[in-house]
Amino acid sequence: MKGYVNNIKPYDVLSHDIWGMDQAEKEKCLKLDWNESTIPPSPNVYNRLKDLAQRGDFYQWYPCTHNLKLITDISRYMNVDKKNIQVFASSDVLQEYVVRCWIKREDNVLIVWPTYDNFRATAEFAGANIYYSLTQDLRFDARQLQKDIESSKPQMVYICNPNNPTGEQIDKNIIEDIVKKNKSVLFLIDEAYAEFSGKTVADLVDKYENLLVSRTFSKAFALANFRIGYLISSDSNIEMVSRVRNAKNITTFSQEAAIAALEDLEYMESHVRDVKIAREFFIGELKSVPNILDVYPSETNFVLIRLKSAGLKQKFLCFMKENNIYIRDLRQNVLLEHFVRITIGSLEQMKKVSKIIKEFCSLYHEGSSI
Amino acid sequence: MKGYVNNIKPYDVLSHDIWGMDQAEKEKCLKLDWNESTIPPSPNVYNRLKDLAQRGDFYQWYPCTHNLKLITDISRYMNVDKKNIQVFASSDVLQEYVVRCWIKREDNVLIVWPTYDNFRATAEFAGANIYYSLTQDLRFDARQLQKDIESSKPQMVYICNPNNPTGEQIDKNIIEDIVKKNKSVLFLIDEAYAEFSGKTVADLVDKYENLLVSRTFSKAFALANFRIGYLISSDSNIEMVSRVRNAKNITTFSQEAAIAALEDLEYMESHVRDVKIAREFFIGELKSVPNILDVYPSETNFVLIRLKSAGLKQKFLCFMKENNIYIRDLRQNVLLEHFVRITIGSLEQMKKVSKIIKEFCSLYHEGSSI
Description:
The structure is a homodimer of 370-residue chains. Chain A is α/β, with parallel strands linked by helices. Helix content of chain A is 40%, strand content 15%. The first copy, chain A, has 13 helices and 12 strands. In chain A, the strands form 2 sheets. The first copy, chain A, has a 7-stranded mixed sheet, sandwiched between helices. Chain A has a 5-stranded mixed sheet with strand order 1-11-12-10-9. In chain A, strand 9 (293-295) and strand 10 (302-307) form a beta hairpin. The mean pLDDT of chain A is 93. Chains A and B meet through helix 2, helix 4, helix 9 and helix 10 of A and helix 2, helix 4, helix 9 and helix 10 of B.
């Protein structure tokens, strides 16, 4: 065994209570803990998968290895050439292959933090030294990042944009500036939530050889279960990662689910519009409650909330769970001990959630014994 | 980029013509190139997946991360404790995690060869030095392997048993003997075809900490499309690999397909019986044709065939393809330039194939101008 592996903290997927429930229990719950879509994907996906399940003459065969139809459809959706795209069985798997291609033991990796933890775990398992670029108020600071790049001399920098769990979007010109300034550093920009911000740096990949952009069907397209991610980068980077990639590993059900979702962009776009309306309503509601929590602005399908104390946060989590609302406790992260993250659903769903939060706030208003 | 990665030969998945065909073309074809099942999986799988496609209330959620039902069912099937089992999104993915746990750059890896090429590619991409243990006549030789272990001092030895593409089964006591004799070496025994041989070393994992056994649902269970593999090893090895494993990456469709297949073992067992009957019939038929090919004994769902010349092999492949039969050309492997591999299907299917091969043999009998 590699000695260092034993000491590494795995990427902890935390509780996933909903899969242990029976159907009746499940239907009572609102799952707002993993930033999944709170509504199902396009009906087009259901029609496609019902057809596949009916036919099923391919079950015993390995899936199509070229993934050409899916790549062609992504190319049209992203307005990026096919040669600049490769698909993977999730963006987590994409990260594993990126690490296998470009990170070796004792390389330095810089992570703009706090953020999604999977890349840290993947790079650390490969033996990389992890450095963090962070600010006290949780807001991105380009000058701080440049300083951290200069001092840590990383092989790769990971930036989630918009960021999870802060919800913040970094401007495209700021990203471009940093990528341009540090040509010897590879930048992995994780755009898992980009459909909600409407912004991307994917069109820059032909200009900068040191830019990798990761995307997913798990969020706005509501296909988390099917595990489809894709990488956008220069043709030579795509060629490199394709040499390492296992081409057999995307099931036909998953390939077709993604293809069917791309055929109904209007459905996804309408969901994104709904989430934005619900998010602004929800943030507005929480700002009006007694001063026991802060809610952060967000360009994603979730909001970051700070409770006034760690004890209050525990009570908040329990109260939400008693009301069948599952949200994410960010306790794993030392900086975020007082924080929770709540996924944004439809306006109707968020009205319900804000009503319950207000009930909690009236029970535990500032000054009450908590 | 890691300098050495550029020079590595990827695991080449070769042509996969069938996915480019329309339905009518597909139905005319017999796909005998990837050792998949030539019949669909149990009707229980179809019923389960139709239900799931109908329900689909989980599409937008990440899959269950514990995989507990599947592990419990595998535990019953393999008669191995749950703590000794972990599941992966294919046995190729399993190999990636094994390499991430136990192989570092410049480690030596010994591969009993010729064999399935994915482990070579995966270990090589991790920077391992690859050594091969082989014999001239393609038959396994335990003394040769022991010599090769002593000279190459590997961190890990990969043995596919029964082996692909030779079809040979190594006796359990021979495996146990080598594993016992080389306690500092980790042995990965790939039992992808073990349902066809009916033999396993999985019950030895509690006895030997240096034994990893890999299994799959892709072959006898006819679920290649769903990408499910599992590892059987000591509880501490399972715990280690579980720290690295991404728990989200097995879709619900895949988990449920495997669970449904395990609920109908009789179907799988009946398929295995049919394949064995068809295999012995097929081998017998080929032995009776003019002396232009040799067929090897096999304890799997495929047979290895040697043509008398490379030119004859090319003609043979073309003839088979003209008759809509897809078989595997083993030209990638320098030792196997004259060889092809043919998957075994039902007796009816193999009667058809042997009839066509006999036609070929009568056209190109020994001495004819080829």
